[in-house]
Amino acid sequence: MKLKEVTNEFQRSSSFHGVTIEASHLDIIELCELNDIPYHDNNTGEDKCNFDFEFYIPEKDVYFTVYDWKEYEPLRVDRCYTFHIGAKDKYSSLIAKKYLVNELEILYK
User: For each of the chain's 109 residues, which pLDDT tens digit applies?
Assistant: First the structure.
């Protein structure tokens, strides 16, 4: 499976279902860059989230978002954070988490 950029507007609906992932924002940025996926970077700490990533897994037809939530300070490069995973339902969120964990493990090797 390969992550893709979200291209359809109807896929851009997601909610938080209690699924999170521990990661560095730099690792998630690297996943985006490896897959040519744009992301929203506003690492100022002035809003509810600093980073907002949108992904699509075509083989599973799963659209999901990954974002930090209410840190209210710029994310530091030397630590991991709890990122929320948003999707259409909890099952899709769990698929997204499993996929991200696998991809991040590959990055760490």
Answer: 566 666 665 566 789 999 999 999 999 999 999 989 999 999 999 999 999 999 999 888 899 999 999 999 999 998 999 999 999 999 999 999 999 999 999 887 7
CA gap 8, 42 in Å, rounded: 24
Domain count, the chain: 1
Query: Would residue 86 count as lying in a domain?
Result: yes
* Domain of residue 95, residue span: 9-108
C-alpha closest to that of 1 among 67, 108, 95? 95
32-71: b or e for each residue (b if 16 or more CB lie within 10 Å)?
A: beeeebebeeebeeeeebbbebbbbbeeeebbbbbbbeeb
